[in-house]
Design brief:
The chain has about 60 residues and is mostly beta strands. The chain has one helix spanning about 10-15; strands spanning about 1-5, 20-25, 35, 50-55.
Length: about 60
């Protein structure tokens, strides 16, 4: 099971697309994936378990 953290409020319609292979969590330090809208992530440190960061929006200027 993959653990997905969200850093901003993400639409429930979008989150409902995740299957039972994914678990939504609050702690990005434990996440295998992070879903972000607008929060700046340049000062964040990431776990070695992190596999992907996805942006729910346009552009990637807030993702290091």
């Amino acid at each position: 099971m993959y653990k997905i953290a969200t850093l901003n409020k993400i639409s429930k319609v979008g989150l409902s697309k995740f299957t039972d292979r994914y678990e939504l969590i609050d702690n990005p330090e434990e996440a295998n994936g992070i879903l972000v809208r607008s929060q700046s992530m340049h000062d964040m440190e990431f776990s070695p378990n992190l596999l992907a960061i996805a942006r729910a929006g346009a552009g990637v200027n807030n993702i290091p």
